[in-house]
């Protein structure tokens, strides 16, 4: 990464001025600020400027996705300057996610030609956030060390209520589908996207437990109106790498060889924590569930897609009939001379 | 359980998958999809819109099948599916294209024909 800096502004005018200065760098300027600030900056740019906008990174909610969005952007744009106001979370857990996001940016975007500027409103940003800026901006700490500092090491206290699903002693990868279906059914009250995302995350961790851990594998699921949590425990050695799932690939290598499952997991749930005991390795996944936007939006998408599937099935049948008719015509043409 | 049904079209073969494509089923699906003979010059269309579930193991199997057939391959996957980007990330030869409608696949593989 060309640079990753923090800018603390005292007024929207200061933010706009900083954006205009940043736009002198090569490549387009991409804005991921609040909608109001995106509009102010865009209005201040010269007509015809190469500037684009994206949704403000939800670093305090789902850091894995926020990073994936930036990575995709950098892949598509080439050299680029990105000015964002990352959501740093409203709770201690949210702030921890945001700190992971900032450190992980230094891991994943390191080889890319991107100038990343994270802007914070000095009038409203909590002290805990401002105090943590130095660890990942400017002459920042080793991102691996930051992620390691933020990692959970000891078993977390489970949620107070009983789990809604407990599956103990799974010994075969063939259990994957049945467990996944039970998890999906237990999450039936959730918005579609929240459910499918979380099931995808659970599936990848269960897959790792079966393929790389040691059976038996235990699954416990908690669902409350605000959050969902799943703990998957196997008897293997697990891993202690706090950057797992944030890096481009396993060991910083090629995603095509390994590491894709944990990377997907980071993008489909809010938290991925791990810990060891003397005999077990546990992965904890959790997500907030309060997203009415997802519920409405995905219901509409699902309905459109169902209609498309039906239309395309008809298209397939029509095309197949056309091919058969053409073949019949060719066969007949061999037997019957065309009319003169 | 995962199943494949085949439809032969002019210029392409469509393999439609139903069921779940995960670490438990991907190997069998990959073997089965690789067994289908493709006429010379025909593109391969893997229609995954009717699958219940696709995991990273499934995406790897899709890429392996495309590699096995050594053919231009079009994957049909629902718009907005969370694994659309992953196919591009996990395809070393970048020969797998992703579209969201079968009609788009038909147009694409006609364009691919010599």
UniProtKB/TrEMBL annotation, chain A:
GO terms for molecular function: kinase activity. Keywords: Kinase, Transferase. Residues 4-137 form the MEDS domain. It comes from the Bacteria. Pfam families: HATPase_c_2 (PF13581), MEDS (PF14417). InterPro entries: HATPase_C_sf, HATPase_dom, MEDS_domain. The keyword Cell membrane does not apply. CDD domains: HATPase_RsbW-like. Residues 171-285 form the Histidine kinase/HSP90-like ATPase domain. This is Anti-sigma regulatory factor (Ser/Thr protein kinase). It comes from Lentzea albida.
TrEMBL record, chain B:
InterPro entries: STAS_dom_sf (IPR036513). It comes from the Bacteria. This is Anti-anti-sigma factor. It comes from Lentzea albida. The lineage of its organism: Bacteria, Bacillati, Actinomycetota, Actinomycetes, Pseudonocardiales.
């Amino acid at each position: 990464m060309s640079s990753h800096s923090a800018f603390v502004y005292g007024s929207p005018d200061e933010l706009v001025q900083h954006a205009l200065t940043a736009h002198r760098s090569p490549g387009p300027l991409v804005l991921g600020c609040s909608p109001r600030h995106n509009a102010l900056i865009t209005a201040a740019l010269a007509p015809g400027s190469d500037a684009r906008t994206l949704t403000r990174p939800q670093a305090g909610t789902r850091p894995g996705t926020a990073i994936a969005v930036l990575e995709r952007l950098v892949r598509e744009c080439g050299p680029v300057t990105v000015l964002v106001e990352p959501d740093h979370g409203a709770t201690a857990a949210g702030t921890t996610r945001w700190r992971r996001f900032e450190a992980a940016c230094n891991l994943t975007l390191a080889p890319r030609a991107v100038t990343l500027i994270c802007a914070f409103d000095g009038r409203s940003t909590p002290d805990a956030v401002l105090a943590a800026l130095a660890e990942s901006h400017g002459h920042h700490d080793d991102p691996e060390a930051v992620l390691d500092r933020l990692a959970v090491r000891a078993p977390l206290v489970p949620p107070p209520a009983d789990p809604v699903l407990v599956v103990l002693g799974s010994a075969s990868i063939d259990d994957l589908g049945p467990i996944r279906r039970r998890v999906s059914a237990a999450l039936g009250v959730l918005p579609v996207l929240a459910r499918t995302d979380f099931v995808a995350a659970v599936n990848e961790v269960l897959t790792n437990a079966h393929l790389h851990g040691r059976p038996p594998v235990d699954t416990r699921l908690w669902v409350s109106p605000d959050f969902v949590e799943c703990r998957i425990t196997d008897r293997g050695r697990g891993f202690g790498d706090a950057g797992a799932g944030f890096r481009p690939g396993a060991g910083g290598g090629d995603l095509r060889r390994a590491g894709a499952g944990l990377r997907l997991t980071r993008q489909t749930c809010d938290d991925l924590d791990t810990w060891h005991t003397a005999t077990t390795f546990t992965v904890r996944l959790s997500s907030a569930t309060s997203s009415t936007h997802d519920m409405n939006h995905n219901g509409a998408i699902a309905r459109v897609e169902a209609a498309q599937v039906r239309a395309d099935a008809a298209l397939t049948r029509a095309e197949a009939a056309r091919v058969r008719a053409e073949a019949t015509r060719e066969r007949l043409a061999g037997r019957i001379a065309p009319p003169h | 359980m995962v199943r494949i049904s085949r439809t032969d079209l002019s210029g392409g073969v469509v393999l439609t998958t139903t069921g779940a494509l995960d670490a438990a089923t991907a190997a069998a699906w990959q073997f089965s999809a690789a067994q289908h003979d493709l006429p010379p010059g025909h593109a391969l269309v893997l229609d995954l819109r009717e699958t219940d579930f696709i995991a990273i193991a499934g995406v790897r199997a899709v890429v392996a099948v495309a590699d096995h057939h050594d053919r231009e391959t079009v994957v049909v996957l629902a718009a907005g599916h969370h694994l659309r980007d992953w196919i591009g990330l996990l395809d070393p030869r970048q020969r797998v294209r992703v579209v969201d409608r079968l009609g788009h696949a038909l147009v694409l593989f006609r364009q691919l024909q010599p």
